[in-house]
Amino acid sequence: MEDLIYENYEILEISKVDQVCKLTETTKKVITEISLKVMVNGEELVSLLCLNQCPEELALGFLYSEGVINAYSDVESISYNDMLFAVIITLKKDILINRQESLRSITSGCGKCYTYINPLKQSQYCSIETEKTFSLNTILQVMKDFLTSSKIFMEVGGVHSVLFYHPDYQILNEDIGRHNCFDKITGILLKAGRLDLASESILFVSGRISSEIMTKAVRLRTPILVSRSTPTTAAIRLAKQYNMTLLGYVRGNKGYVYASPERLAL
Q1: Which is nearest to 136 in space by CA: 261, 7, 6, 47?
Q2: pTM of the model
């Protein structure tokens, strides 16, 4: 698997000793990036720029996040062609894709070409209603552990991390794009038949929360989203609109609550 996620490059290392700079030949691991095609019912729906890891789960999660499918049972067949970097999916006959959704290229950063909930799918994004509370002590401790748990980041760098946390079931995923991490986690839950756990779980994110990240969390129906960094104003508005508890700048024993603090137990 390691040969899929990074390559070794011959480069020059900069150093400075006694005010003198020098360049030294060295070898460094560099994270890979591929353009993953998602083929649905014989046509290319989207290209995702991503880490070469968990391609089927990424494709499934993307389709779920975008409201194309609602369950793994909506998929007739799925396979991965590693020569073409393509996930090939056939949906059940009654699952249709609106042509307005076809062929988009999603970047590996946060600058996606669309960021808000698709009006055609808005009925599939519901306000999160749960009376369950979550311990702030647990949230702070899990975040501390999470921030040092990315083996790829520690060894190679160049990736974001997302943790799906349930007391009995955890998924850690890494990718060059945060939104890819979310979709992979969703795809893993779909395949495993564990999507029901989302309503009693917490999502931890290594980077900032944009509106596109928030829409994926809302679609997954996870009641709490915790970030080491900041949310955007659009993300805060979506959190309040859909009743999601949103925490930012959670580092050490500190952090901020931007929406729905009633779920937090002191």
Answers
A1: 261
A2: 0.88
